[in-house]
Amino acid sequence: MSRVVVIGGGAAGMMAAVSAAECGNRVTLLEKNEKLGKKIYITGKGRCNFTNACDREEFFDKIVTNPRFLYSAFHTFSNEDAIAFFEDRGMPVKVERGNRAFPVSDHASDVTKVLSDEMKRLGVMVRLRCEVSGIETVPYRGTGKKDTWNAAVSGVRLSHGETVPADVIIVATGGLSYPSTGSTGDGYRFAEKAGHTVTKRSPSLVSLSAQEPFCSELAGLTLRNVGVRFVKQDETLYEDFGELLFTHKGVSGPVVLSATGKVSGRLTGSRLLINLKPALSEEQLDARLVREFTGGASKQLRTILGALVPSAMADFVLKQAGIEPTVRGAEVTRQMRASLSSALRNFTLTITGLGGYQEAVVTKGGVSVTEINPKTMESKLVRGLRFAGELLDVDGLTGGFNLQIAWSTGYLAGRIKEQEAKAMSINIAIDGPAGAGKSTIAKAVAKRLGYIYVDTGAMYRTIALYLLRKGIKADDTEAIGKAGREAEVSIDYVNGEQQVLLFGENVSGLIRTEEVGNMASASSVNKDIRDKMADLQRELARTKNVVMDGRDIGTNVLPNAQVKVYLTASVEVRAMRRVKEYEQKGIRADYEQVAKDIEERDYRDMHREHAPLCRAADAVLLDTSDMTIEEVEDAMIRIIEEKLSAKQ
Fold this sequence. Notes:
By secondary structure, the protein is α/β, with parallel strands linked by helices. It contains 23 helices and 32 strands. It has a six-stranded antiparallel barrel. The longest helix has 18 residues, at 629-646. 43% of the residues are buried.
């Protein structure tokens, strides 16, 4: 079980949390708003066009930026999967024109409710009004030629100072569009801080402003089944057919949004040519005009034109044709008819700019996909860091395609399965006799590699504390075994430091007394206790990169560890080191007695009945008698790198 923290409670974040929880992980979702899915509530004018029911080929035709990056994500969770997901959880779905899928209720809140209920069912911890200020990482040393990570996540830092520990962090904070919903670009900052490239961003699927003042008079007018063509310096930038809407400042609607999705960066300064009668050829349109003018010979053109275009547009079309609205049908010349035909086929607007993020459906640009594994959504730079949704440099056209990107990438980012965690985790086992410096070296190596140091001694001391609290004597073997079996010991990590919990109480600061140490020495030989602690230690190593030291780590606790080292030194050297340790603590120690104690401890450890101290067959022997601590560290790193490289 991995500790997964999802940053962002929008579409991608909620789907990622559901997916990760389905895989058996412990999931926490952090959302800075007062409720989940704020942007979902306003999509599709409050109806939520949550996906598009088109086929796979058409789907990828509608993905504008980096469609190939989405192949694995869409294969893992397609539009068909999205529809089934919501239907299976009690939300009836309908498909409308253009294969756009909506809740039958036409309520966007139903989409959010399905995801919220599913998170609750799966035990996801949702924390609202919880703003993230940064991502915590630790150094990470690569384990092979194909390993590109230089850091690993360790937790999420909140704005009020709290740190939430994490093995995996999924950033799903959205882009910059609709900032009122909380999309203020936080994720880009997190990504850049982690070393990621963020491409140039701009509003996409957004309205256009036009130079012509009559747009404000036509505001609210929708033109259906019209052809549009954007032209700049005689180059056609974009063509489409469909629905267009006039606004107070210019134009919007599906064809305009799609144009901004395709070529937003080039539209300013272009001319928008609207074909108001695309179903008619030039000859057919001319014949139609002749019929209209003949039948309405006494009528003014502004009246006659009402049969061809919305009446509100008639005067503006005639003005572009250079014809007075009061001209009557019988007065129209061939040249006037040709000019009017041209105006109907090329009604022109001059584009002066794009709407801002406050009205953009999505953000174009984002975290560069070249630095993300498309099969997992995991960063290639920071181990355990994943991205999903609008934050990525992936975007599509209007019609439900961008929400499908959120569902697909969020679902894939959350597939943190046990077998994947096992494959990812690296275990380094260090065994050796007392006084060999195992703990000192293990801590130093873990720090240099960015791995977790597992203090096995602290676990035994925690059991010892429990025995003392219950008043059990060190020689009462039966009582020790019984109490050891019932004790609930767990491990957590805060800012990379191991914390031991006894029945949920953090006792890390209570286990370093001499009394606890003596009880730990006496009770650790108990088979029940050793088995219980070994299981806990294996659980830690199952999903985390760990460095673990002890006397039976490579032979009993982690027999399949990728790297095993047997660290030793002569009795004389070990005794001298121990005496120096005592002196540094202000304790006087007799060298001869210390050496005798070490020899006796060696004999007990090597001859105990359960899991005795011995060198694993595949462990590297490292005699440190004539080495400094720095030399031992360097030697350990070389051994680890050689072993891990050989396993690639």
